[in-house]
Amino acid sequence: MAVLPIYNSFHPVLKNKASKVEVTDDSVRQLVDDMYETLYNISNGVGLAANQVGDKRAVVVIDLGVGDAEALSEQITMINPEIIDSSEETDDDYEGCLSIPEYFEKVVRPAKIKVKYYDLEMKETVVEVDGFLARCMQHEIDHLNGILFYERLSTLRKTLGKNKLKRIKKGAVVPDYPMINPDGKAQKI
Hints:
The chain is α+β, with helices and mostly antiparallel strands. The protein is about 25% helix and about 30% strand. It contains three helices and nine strands, in the order βαβββββββααβ. Strands 2-3-4-7-8 form a five-stranded antiparallel sheet. It has a two-stranded parallel ribbon with strand order 1-9. A hairpin with a 5-residue loop joins β7 and β8. It is globular, with a radius of gyration of 16 Å.
């Protein structure tokens, strides 16, 4: 297993729609293992989409227990996830992203969702979730569709965050984990 660098939100890999996984071969299993290793070695993330580590496949890993001594660790691996239903009721809460270091903002999302995905054995799973897990799944699935959380902000919040995002794009915000800048070069920690 390896700790993979996180790609800056302005890198082109994060703006493309992920490719569907047809079969979970050894390369997919290795990717999942490396994504969990990365997640567990970066202090403040609970989920990762494959394109955040430079891979174009539709893979997400989540563990809400990361960084929370009170929470039980439970790995959720989602292959080809898609939201098939969502509530009209919404929830407004803060989000952050490893690809957008040190930037947190309130995002309005559906409070409940129904998600279809496949596990590593390509067994289909359909779940209905709410709360923080629903928010996390929506955030990561957005990544696979080339959508970043700041694109879901109100016009006012986008305007207020412009300077912070410019600094992130230029590489002026340096996280305490390996990051690939928009130009493809590794950022110095």
